[in-house]
Amino acid sequence: MARTDIGPPDFRTMLPEIIKKNYGAWKYHEILKPGVMKHVAHSGDELYTVRAGSPRLISVDFIRDICDIADKYCDGHLRFTSRYNVEFLTPKKENVDPIIGEAAKMGLPVGGIGDCISNIVHTQGWIHCHSAATDASGLVKAIMDELHEYFVKFKLEAKLRIAVACCINMCGAVHCSDLAIVGVHTKPPKVDNKRVPQICEVPSTIRSCPTGAIRKNPDGEGVVVNKERCMFCGNCYTVCPAMPLADPEGDGLAIFVGGKVSNARKPPMFSRLAVPFIRNNPPRWPELIDVLKKIIEVYIAGARKYERLGEWIERIGWERFFSLTGIEFTEDHVDDFTTASETYRSSTQFRW
User: Fold this and answer.
1) Burial tier of 265 (Cβ tally within 10 Å: 0-12, 13-18, 19+)
2) What is the distance between the alpha carbons of residues 223 and 302, in angstroms, rounded to a whole number?
3) 3-state class of 21 per DSSP?
4) Is the CA virtual torsion 123, 129, 131, 136 positive or negative?
5) pLDDT score at 1
6) Radius of gyration of the CA atoms of the chain, in A
7) Beta strand pairing status for 78-80 and 46-53?
8) What are phi and psi for residue 216, nearest 5 degrees?
9) Mean pLDDT throughout 56-79?
């Protein structure tokens, strides 16, 4: 078969030798302590994994530093997880503690395996995304500073995955995470009809709106937006830069809860709205973090072993969830989508 440069390289060429040797022949694994896991193969070989949390936006110097650790203790091998953890893989048990020590020198916490909070998967935020309603990197830093103990210690009954998306296009995994923070716009785009005809394709701009809120301006050139139909998604701004959506007063955060990908005990679950709006308050977002900590504390106090956040909520009922967390239930929680009535709970029986 001819070799080409089309597509990604074969991942098998990059695996540590112990994984190549025992590929598909692992007997079991166990979590030794927060952030440290051991895999044992049928051959008797052992592989140790040390997981350290890291930021998503990193420098070349950071890459060089973690590669130095991998060269020294892991035969040059390391990997990044889908939630931006760095994992050092070594067949030598005696290398585990030195790796943890090297990670500590870099300021990287070791944890996130087992019944812990995972590192937060997030989107670009203000640093890069054109439609962001909130920051991502700064927000994640503020959250994990407060929730650090849940990453490095076993204080939960099950794993807890957190995600951040800086707008409702949700490039992050917020639809399927236990706790999710979503940036939301609450004001329609500001239409600059002097620039729209000059830099935008008007037909494409009109067709970009999923709710049909954009129409040709009846009083002249450009377009107009029906505020009642606008859902603040930012699609129009992606097509037409003369319709910016960002607004310091109208942009903020929503909290969703109860999602998961795992098929254990119950099928995968979508997350659902818990808090419709919290105003952006950088650089530490204290109001948001207070709500997150309250949800986690109540969950810890009431969950059963291996029970994910969404499973716990389903067991106690959403009414009880709102009562325990002190979150106010408002009309914003009522789904008013066209076909939402098909999923309404129409019985008079409520859990409390």
Assistant:
1) exposed
2) 52
3) helix
4) positive
5) 52
6) 24
7) unpaired
8) -65, 140
9) 95
